Every structure is written in C-alpha cells, then in structure tokens.
C-alpha cells in the first residue's frame, strides 16, 4: 500500500494544499510548527477518521473556519482508492458530514463503514497501524514501557493471533454450554427414572380390574331401575290422555256456554236499539208537527196561497217584478235628485258671482266720485290764476294810456324815432368833422404866424395874402361849435324818446303773452269742469248698475234655495222606495225559511223511514239469532251427558300413583349414574397413568441417548479448546523467536556497539537487553537515544515480521517516521539512513520521514518543504526539485 496524493482544505494550519507522494523515501522538512506532522496526521486521519486522532475532531478544523476537507488517494494490492472526508463545525458541534471511499467496483459511505472497510483492507485498525507503520513523534517509549501482556496483545493482534484466542474462547464457551445442557439433562433423566419407579410400585393393573367389576354391577342396577321407570311413565301417560280428553270436552262446553251468552247479549242489545229507534221516531214526528205549525204562520206572513214550491216560485216572480219596478223608479229619482242638486249649486255660485260684481261696480263708482272732486279742485285753481292774469293785463294797459299810444302802434313809432335819430347823429358827425377841420386850420395858421411865416405859402408873413382869413376862420369855429351843441341836444332828446318807444314795445309783447295765457287757462278751466261733470254722471250710472246686480244676486240665491228644497223632497221619496225594496228582501227571506222548513220536514220524514227500516232489520236478525241459540243449547246438553265420572276418577288415581313412584325412582337413578360416572373416571385415570408410565419410559430412553451424545460433544469441545490454545502458544512461540531474531538484527544494524551482546524476547514477551558481560538490563534503563533506537528497531522488526508473516496478502503500508532523529547523534543518523535503505530492500515501497536532519534530507528521493506564512499563519507544502538522485544504498 502507498499514498499517492493528499489534498487538504482548512486542515489544521493548511488553507489549501496538495501533495503528491511517490515511491521511495520522502523527507518532509521545515521549521518548527510549520505543519510537517500535520501532513502525516492528515494521511492517518484520512484512513481512520476520528479514531486516528489523539484529541477531538474539532482540532482538525483550521481555527476560525467552518469546514475542513481531506482527500487521500492511495494504491493498494493493485487497486486505486480515494477517501474523501468533509468535517463541518457549526456552533459547538463538529461532525463528519461527508465520508466516502471510492475504489474499483466499490463505494463506501459513512465514517464507520469507511473505517471498517479500511481496517479490513489493510488488515489493521488504527491502533495496529500506529504500532507498526506510523511512529508518531514522542511515542518512542510506547512499546518499551508497555507491560508484557500489553505487548503480547499488540503483537498478537497484529499477527492476527487474537483470532485463535477468540476461537479457543468460543470452543470454551461451547464446552460450557454443553456442560450446562448435559447437567440439566442428567437431572431430568434422574427425575424421570424416579417417577417411573414410583408408578411401577402403585399396582395400577390390580386397581383397574377392581374398578371394572364394580362398574358392571352398577350398570345392571341402572338397567333395572330404568325399566321400572318406563312402566310408570306409560301408566301416567294413559291416565293423562283420559284426563286430557275430559278437559277438552269441558272446554268445549265452556266455549258453547260463552257463545250462548254472547248471542243472548246480542239479542238484548238489538232489542234495546229497536226501543231507542222507536223513541226517536216519536220525537221526530213531534218535531215535524212543530215545523208544520211554524210553516202555517210563515205562509200567512208571506202571503202564500199554499206552502208549496210552486206557490213560492210564483210569489218570488211577483216580488222580482215589483223589485225591478222599484229599482227603475229609484234610478229616475236619483237622476232627478242629482239635477236639483247641480242646479242649486250652480245658482248659488251665480249669486256669489253677481254679488262680487256689484261690489266691484260700487267701488268703481266711488272711484269716479273721487275723480270728480279732484277735477273740481283743479277748476278752482284755474279760476284763481285767471283773476291774477286779468290784474296784470290792466296794469299794462294803463302804461299805454299814460303814453297815449294805442297798443299795437309802438313798433311804427319806434322806427320813426329811430330814423330821426340816425339823421341827427349824421348831422353831429358832419359838424364834428367840419369843426375839427376848422380848428386844425386855425391852429396851423397860428403856428405859422408864430413862426412868421405864411400859413399858406410859407412865405414870410409880412406881405402874404393869406394871413387875412384867420379871423374868418375863428368865427367859423365859433359858429360850428354852437351848431354842434344844438345838434347834440337834438340827438339826446331823440335817444330818450327811442327808449320810451322800446319800453312800450316790450309792454306790448307782455300784453300779448298775458292774453295768450289767459286764453289757455280758460280752456283748461272748461276742461276741468267738463271732466268733473262727466265723472259725476259716471258714478251715478255705476251706482245704479250695482243696485241692479245686487237685485239679480238675491234672485239667484232665492232660486238656489228652491232647488235645494226640491232635491231634499226627492231624497225623501228615494228613501221611501228603498224601504219598500228592503221589505221585498225580507219577504224573500221568509220564503227561503219556508223552503228550508219544508226541506227539514222532508228530511225528518226520511229519517223516520230509515229508523223503521232499521227496526224491522233488527227484528229479522234477532229471529235468526234465537234459532242459533236453540241449536247451541242442544249441542251443549248433549256434550254434558256424554262423559262418565268413574272413569275420570280412576285415571286421576293412576296418575297420582305413577307420579309418586317416579319421584322416588329418579333420584335413585341419578345416584346410580353418578356412581357409574365416578367409576368410569377412575378407570380413565388409571388408564391415563398407565399410558403416562409408557410415555415416561420412552422419554427416559431418549434422554439417556441424549446424555450420551452430549457427553461425546463435551469431550470434542474440550479437545478443540485445547487445540486452539496449543496452536496459539505454538504460533506465538514461533513468532516470538522470529521477532527476537529480527529485533536483534535490526538493533545491531542501527546501534551496533560493543556494549550490548543481544536482546532477549521470551515467550511471555518479556524484553531483556544483555550486555557483553552477560548482565541483563531492563530496556527502560537504556539512555534516551538508545531507547529511541531500541524502539525503532522493535518497530521495524514488527513491521518486518508482519510483512513476512502475511506475505503478499497484505502489502505493507508506508513506513512513517515522525522526527526519528531527535535523540540521535550524527553517527546513528547514518545508521538510520542505512536502516531506511534496508527497509526498502525488505519491500517497503514508501517511506515518509519528517526530519530536520541534513543527512536524512540528503538521502531523500523526494523532498517536501513545509513553510508557514508569518502573516497569514497558513502553511504550504512544496516539492524541492532534486538533483539526480543518488542511491541511498550507495551511501553506506
Ligand atoms: N486547528 C488548527 N488551526 C490552525 N492552526 C493549527 C491548528 N492546529 C494546529 N495548528 C498549527 O499547526 C502547527 C503545528 O503543526 P505541526 O505539529 O504539524 O508542526 P511541525 O512542523 O510538525 O512542527 P515541529 O517541527 O515542532 O514538530 C502549529 O503552529 C499550530 O499552531
Ligand atoms: Zn513536527
């Protein structure tokens, strides 16, 4: 067997790692704590699971991670296998959630099954693997310190000698089982023999004979009693038959008596019923008489000639006719009444309308009167105004009288004065111009004269002609001034006169206006007066009209009253007729009651007939019954005469005697039968015991045979037990010898110094080291390094023994050494290298060693370097490229 590939995820310090392991010697090296041992542990754990751990499952999961995966591929006996494990930590629990082993044509699931499979496959469990193949760090003293019996167990177990012990134990168990069985069978056999002896002593056959003869006697006695009982029973039966017959006849007579009584009773009942019916007929007849007298009275009331259906029908016709007639009259009257009522209503309405109109007309009249008054007041106002206008006109006329001008001429006068005034004003203007001119000339001349010059020619004044005219001119100015003043006076006078004339003209206009106003007023006055007159007349007319309307209204109301009265009269007549109709109805009812009385009478008559019929039927029935009664009485009398008192008495006596006998005999018989049953039981019991005895004898014979057989099986088991024990001892002895040889060989090879001569391993697995001088030494007394070598030698020896012993069937697992050089000095390390090479030669294909030792490293076929990252604290593994591999064997 050899490991091929290991793949780890979150296993201890490894986050992710993959290692391939090859044949030959693989050395794993690296610093302390880098994870070397963990790699080996991983392989071991992959194979055996939790069993392979020193601690708990929890430790394999990298701190802080939740899941760990391990995959190990290995080769064994020509096949490839692969184990996969997945461990999950959730909360406080750590468990294997997945565990599978795949091999050729096989898949195993579940940690337990995988472990079993691996144990089976490698022929060693985890413990055995540790004892031979995997030398764990620090387990140097394990085998040395073990007690001989522990050592024996370990080695026996490895060499499968344990199985022989198991077989021996099983044989021992079987022997003990047989022994138990044998003992119990022997006891049984003794018991049986005892019981047979006891039974043989009891004289069962003698008892049987005696019982059988007694049974014969009892049977005879039973037979005798039974025949007597039969006789008595026959006598009893005969007597009973006679008595029965007698009883039957008595019963028959009783039955006939009963029937006779019944018939008599029926006849009596029928007679009673007939009597009752007769009484009913009388009662009914009386009732009919009463009804007929009632009928007579009713017929008179209803004016009927006869109380017959025909008369009633005729009377009904008359009543129908009368009713129809009355209905007709009534309907006419109702129409009339309705007419009167309508007229009364209409007239009352009309009266109201007229009354309203009269009121309206009166209010119109009042309105017209008030209008007339208003018009009168207006006329008076106009009159007053006219008076004031007349006053004003007089004042204006007085003005004209004063001016002595005829009104209407003022205009012509004004025009005349106007033209005189303009002429006068022209004269003034002319004079003013002339005066001005004259004055200028005077002024001019005076200026020239003052200057000495002629005013006309400019020549010096002395001698100028013109100077002479100045006086004339001065006169002319004076003249003109006088003339102008006169002319101006004339203008003033004319202006005054014009103003007067103007005034008059205005007065004239005012007068015309006043005359106009006066005319207008007068017209309006006339109008007002006319209006007043007209309104008064209208009021008069309206009042007359209103009176007329009132009269009409009164008339209409009167007529309405008359109509109402007429309507009331008609109502009375209607009521009267309705009364008559009611009378007809009551007459009809009377007729109906007569009819029903007639019907009742008929019915009563019928009832009488029925009663009579029933009576005669009853009479006939009773006649028949009397006939039957007679017959029954005869039959009964016959029966009474037919039996004999003496015979009955004899039968009674016989029956009593037989019964008395039977009463005594039956218990006797019962007693006999009981005795017989007891005897039979006893006989059965004795016979059973006899057959029991037979059976016991048979059983005893069988048991005796069985005990013989068991005794021989016991012997066989004993010898088998012995055989296994001997075999194991022998095998162990052989193994011990071989092991001792190999141990010495190996120890010599790895230690080989002059101090020790040899190691002894005795049959009890006691180890002793002998010094050269023959002194024995306990292995525990060796030095640390010596112990390490000794241990290694022992392991290797066991490993060799194992591989030799099992030969081919179980190819040896890889030899795994964890730090084997710790206690060794350099020389011994070289020997270890030699040992390793030896092992290779013995056929160990794969050797894995954890070591720091340079020499071992140098001797490796494969070098794996393990490193731990200082920051992440995660380990990694790496294969060193090796130079051409020197042969290890060549080293030595
Ligand atoms: N569950 C774990 N999670 C993380 N790290 C772990 C876990 N278990 C162990 N370790 C670490 O792994 C290392 C131990 O590894 P291992 O024993 O394989 O080292 P080594 O190389 O064999 O050391 P030495 O040379 O001292 O024997 C320690 O540093 C330890 O802290
Ligand atoms: Zn280590």
From TrEMBL:
Cross-referenced PROSITE patterns: ZN_HOOK
Keywords: ATP-binding, Coiled coil, DNA damage, DNA repair, Hydrolase, Metal-binding, Nucleotide-binding, Zinc
Region spans: Disordered: 337-421, 522-597, 622-644, 871-892
GO annotation, biological process: double-strand break repair
Stated role: Part of the Rad50/Mre11 complex, which is involved in the early steps of DNA double-strand break (DSB) repair. Rad50 controls the balance between DNA end bridging and DNA resection via ATP-dependent structural rearrangements of the Rad50/Mre11 complex.
Protein name, as recorded: DNA double-strand break repair Rad50 ATPase
Organism name: Halalkaliarchaeum desulfuricum
Binding residues annotated for Zn(2+), in chain numbering: 454, 457
Cofactor binding note from Swiss-Prot or TrEMBL: Binds 1 zinc ion per homodimer.
Residues where ATP binds: 12, 32-38, 137
Homology family: Belongs to the SMC family. RAD50 subfamily.
Matching PANTHER family: ABC TRANSPORTER ABCH.3 (PTHR32114:SF2)
């Amino acid at each position: 067997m050899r490991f091929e590939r290991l793949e780890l995820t979150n296993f201890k310090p490894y986050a992710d790692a993959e290692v391939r392991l090859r044949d030959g010697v693989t050395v794993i090296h690296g610093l302390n704590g880098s994870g070397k041992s963990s790699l080996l542990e991983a392989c071991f754990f992959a194979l055996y699971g939790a069993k392979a751990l020193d601690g708990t499952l929890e430790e394999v999961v990298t701190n802080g991670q939740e899941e760990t995966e391990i995959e190990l591929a290995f080769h064994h006996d020509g096949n490839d296998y692969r184990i996969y494990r997945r461990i999950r930590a959730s909360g406080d629990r750590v468990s294997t959630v997945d565990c599978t082993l795949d091999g050729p044509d096989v898949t195993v699931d579940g940690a337990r099954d995988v472990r079993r499979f691996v144990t089976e496959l490698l022929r060693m469990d985890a413990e055995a693997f540790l004892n031979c193949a995997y030398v764990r760090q620090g387990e140097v003293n394990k085998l040395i310190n073990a007690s001989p019996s522990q050592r024996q167990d370990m080695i026996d177990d490895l060499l499968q000698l344990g199985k022989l012990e198991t077989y021996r134990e099983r044989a021992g168990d079987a022997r003990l089982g047989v022994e138990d069985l044998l003992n119990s069978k022997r006891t049984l056999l003794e018991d049986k023999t005892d019981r047979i002896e006891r039974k043989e002593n009891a004289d069962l056959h003698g008892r049987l004979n005696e019982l059988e003869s007694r049974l014969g006697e009892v049977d005879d006695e039973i037979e005798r009693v039974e025949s007597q009982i039969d006789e008595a029973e026959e006598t009893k039966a005969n007597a009973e038959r006679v008595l029965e017959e007698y009883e039957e006849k008595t019963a028959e007579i009783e039955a006939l008596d009963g029937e006779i009584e019944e018939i008599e009773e029926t006849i009596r009942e029928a007679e009673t019923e007939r009597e009752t019916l007769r009484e009913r007929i009388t009662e009914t007849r009386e009732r009919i008489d009463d009804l007929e007298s009632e009928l007579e009275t009713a017929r008179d009331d209803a004016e009927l000639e006869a109380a017959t259906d025909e008369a009633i029908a005729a009377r009904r016709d008359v009543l129908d006719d009368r009713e129809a007639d009355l209905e007709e009259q009534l309907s006419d009257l109702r129409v009339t009444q309705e007419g009167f009522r309508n007229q009364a209503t209409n007239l009352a309405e009309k009266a109201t309308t007229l009354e309203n109109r009269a009121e309206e007309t009166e209010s119109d009249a009042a309105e017209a009167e008030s209008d007339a008054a208003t018009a009168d007041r207006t006329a008076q106002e106009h009159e007053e105004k006219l008076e004031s206008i007349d006053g004003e006109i007089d004042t204006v006329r007085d003005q004209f009288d004063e001016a002595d001008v005829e009104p209407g001429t003022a205009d012509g006068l004004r025009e005349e004065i106007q033209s005189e005034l303009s002429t006068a004003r022209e004269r003034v203007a002319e004079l003013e111009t002339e005066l001005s001119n004259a004055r200028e000339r005077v002024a001019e001349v005076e200026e020239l004269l003052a200057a000495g010059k002629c005013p006309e020619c400019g020549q010096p004044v002395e001698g100028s002609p013109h100077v002479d005219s100045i006086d004339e001119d001065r006169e002319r100015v004076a003249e003109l001034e006088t003339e102008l003043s006169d002319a101006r006076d004339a203008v003033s006078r004319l202006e005054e006169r014009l103003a007067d004339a103007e005034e008059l003209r205005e007065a004239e206009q005012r007068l015309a206006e006043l005359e106009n106003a006066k005319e207008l007023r007068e017209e309006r006055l006339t109008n007002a007066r006319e209006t007043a007159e007209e309104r008064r007349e209208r009021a008069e007319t309206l009042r007359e009209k209103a009176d007329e309307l009132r009269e009409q209204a009164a008339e209409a109301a009167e007529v309405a009253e008359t109509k109402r009265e007429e309507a009331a009269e008609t109502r009375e007549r209607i009521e009267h007729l309705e009364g008559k109709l009611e009378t007809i109805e009551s007459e009809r009812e009377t007729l109906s009651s007569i009819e029903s009385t007639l019907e009742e009478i008929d019915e009563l008559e019928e009832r009488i007939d029925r009663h009579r019929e029933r009576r005669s039927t009853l009479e006939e029935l009773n006649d028949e019954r009397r006939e039957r009664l007679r017959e029954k009485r005869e039959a009964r009398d016959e029966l009474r005469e037919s039996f004999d008192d003496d015979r009955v008495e004899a039968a009674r006596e016989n029956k009593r005697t037989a019964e008395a006998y039977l009463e005594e005999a039956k218990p006797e018989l019962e007693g006999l039968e009981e005795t017989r049953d007891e005897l039979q039981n006893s006989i059965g019991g004795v016979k059973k015991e006899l057959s029991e005895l037979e059976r016991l004898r048979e059983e005893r014979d069988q048991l005796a045979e069985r005990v013989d057989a068991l005794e021989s099986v016991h012997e066989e088991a004993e010898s088998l037990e012995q055989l296994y024990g001997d075999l194991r001892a022998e095998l162990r002895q052989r193994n011990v010898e071989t092991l001792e040889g190999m141990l010495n060989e190996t120890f010599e090879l790895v230690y080989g110094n002059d101090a020790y001569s040899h190691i002894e391993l005795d049959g009890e697995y006691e180890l002793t080291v002998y010094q050269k001088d023959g002194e024995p030494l306990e292995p525990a007394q060796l030095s640390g390094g010596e112990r390490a070598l000794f241990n290694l030698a022992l392991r290797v020896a066991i490993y060799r023994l194992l591989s030799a012993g099992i030969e081919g069937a179980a190819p040896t697992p890889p030899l795994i050494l964890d730090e084997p050089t710790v206690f060794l000095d350099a020389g011994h390390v070289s020997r270890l290298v030699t040992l390793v090479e030896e092992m290779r030669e013995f056929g160990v294909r794969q050797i894995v060693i954890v070591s720091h030792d340079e020499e071992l490293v140098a001797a490796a076929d494969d070098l794996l370097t393990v490193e731990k990252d200082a920051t992440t604290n995660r380990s990694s593994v790496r294969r060193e490229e090796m130079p051409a591999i020197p042969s290890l064997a060549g080293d030595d």
